[in-house]
Amino acid sequence: MPAAHATFALAPAIRAGGVLPDGAYQLHRDFVDFIVDGRPLLFQLSDLDAVSPLASDVPPAIFTAQVRALLLEPEASAPLPGGRYVIYGCPECADLACGAVTAVIERDGEDYVWRDFAWQTEPEADLERNGYHGIGPFRFAGEEYRAALDALTHTGDRRRVLLIGARVAVLAKLAAALRGIGIGADITRDAEHVPAEELSAYGAVAFGRAVGEPERAAVRAAFDRAGVDVAYVDGLAPVVPLLVAQIEQALDRGPVTRRRLNRLEAADGHLGVEVGSSCRVRVTAYRLDRLHRTHTYEIFDGVLEPGPHRIALDTGTVRGEAFVVARTAGNVLVAALSRTADGPSGAAH
Question: Of 36, 224, 237, 261, which residue is least crowded by CB atoms under 10 Å?
């Protein structure tokens, strides 16, 4: 008797990029994730930093070929021996040698079956040693499966930000950092005369702290006239990794229920962090001293299980004007910390 059907859907997802405390870049990747029985399949693979082959930055012809391969169309063939397909691969280089999650995809009548999931670094998979024995097999109804994949269009998600501020040196460094992780960035002081078709390319606008309200209002009015809905980011401080994280958070339009990192807040001398699935969480604090020098502190780096967690704060490292960035492989949240009578406080969702 055939196994019961699992539901199949697709949803936008990201592998958040960023500038790490040591100055290295983590590449940003937009991709389409597989939603099995209402939950991202990637979440079932614990703390895996990977993306599906349906990434927004691959050439259209390759993207279309990936869709056709998943549909098992006659002109497409399995890229790996034994009818195996890459389900998730390395977000930096997509090289099999870095490791990939693969599975056999086959037709059974009208249904599509995904089975024998494995971690693979060589052309041949070793199921006994590297198989994901607790995942699958999944049987998907053909009509639902084909409809989801056929509906894919490679239009991009406006991964571009308009930077507006007074400190040209900071803006230049920020633009370079964003471009280094795959996010387009342009610098301007006046969007009033920018054509609507150009404004439509932006997903966010980031304002520096020195930009006054009249200038901000003029920019918002320009986007309103163009009929373009963008996210507006108020830069917290002239700290490039912090600003990159703010922009990453603003560009993440996915539903909260499909994010690994759901909540970040600071109160009563601790951080409150809530995660939706088991994952590695890194929390970094940035503090500006009285001379406006930046001090960076690693607050936490470890795997958290689903649910809320409390992380103690050393009030000495976050005194004065300070901010925290929490990052997973899937998303990032930022919170501003302020000194009160009871200690640091702040929140981001």
Answer: 224
